[in-house]
Input
Amino acid sequence: MRALFGRSDAVFASLLGPTHLVETANPAFLAALCEDRAHVGAPLAALLPEPLGRSFVALLDDVYRTGEPRIDRDVRIVLDSGPRAREAFFDLTCEPRHDTDGGVIGVRVVGIETTQVRHAQHLMAEQRALLEQIARQAPLADVLDGMARCIENLAPQEVLVSVLLADSDGAHLNHGAAPSLPDFYNRAIDGIATGEGIGSCGTAAYRRAPVIVTDIACDPFWDDFRDLAERADLAACWSTPILALDGSLLGTFAMYHRVPRVPQGTDLALARIFAHTAALAIERHHNERARRDAEAEAKAARDELAEAVRSERALRAEAEQRAATAAELAARIRTAAAAQVVLPHPEHCQLGGADGCTEPAELKVADSWGDAAWGCPAHVEEAIVHVRSAFVASEELGGLAAYVNRRPA
Output
């Protein structure tokens, strides 16, 4: 068994008695339980934090009691305790060990840790949900907030996620999502400039490359923000730029930690995956906003053109009406000029149209052809306005002084 499992990634242990003393175990088994405490000769229950190890111990108790082998998948075991505690899952085969008389003397355990597989499946499911949100054109704030919460739930240690969005010229970063960071911290970094040495995010945006700060307390990038980070209880910040397909800056994706921490390969992979997902969401948002802006501009142009057409039609109708009025008034002047052969100065206004006008004929108006008519001040005004080259006749013809000295209506 040692030769078979000694260097394997699979966990193997041979346990003895009802307390499941670790009689033999390979390094993978001891490492999984935490090497600094796990050792041969210790009862298994003492190596697992209570009550978090009871499910595994209960499985072993069942095999020891019944003498029947068990194959269980995705057995949940919480390893270690306190801040180092982590949730792990194993596919386990547990077989009873027998003495020469056939009695059960212990349990042999062989298993494979499936924690990363489960996390990968969860990651794929969460990413698929986010991509569906993006495809449905969900609000960008909702997508980014959901993404941040998803990563915070997936990470094995406590992590606080922040997404900052670049402005149009890439010179500043604005708040996008940070559901677990304090409000005062989010307000303080909203609008932060991009540039070398401006925190993790400002530097990552400027470099267009990830910036890993493992200890904020002693990193020069955080000189201007160290007190702020201390107030927010932040000790490490890994920032990844969010880039469009053409390489332009869309924002930054940051993972904060309460204690100084160096990222593992899985942490960096998680950052890359979700930075890419965030890029899809942000680019989709920008494209949709550009489309809406273009549609709004096109509608405004159509409305402006329609208004211009309406105005042109109104002006044309007004001009046609003025022309008709002018023609009618010119006709009245000609008719009145013919009537003056008989009556040079009529008593009533001659410009009142079909219905006539009973006002006194006070002023004389003439057109450029020499035709003249007598009318009241109102109809004379109308003739002057509408008939081309119409004018008040000279004083000798009777009316200019009266027109100039007329009383207001």
Summary: The chain has three domains: 2-113, 118-291, 340-404. The CA atoms of residues 335 and 341 lie 11 Å apart. The first strand starts at residue 11 and ends at 16. DSSP finds twelve helices and 14 strands in the chain.
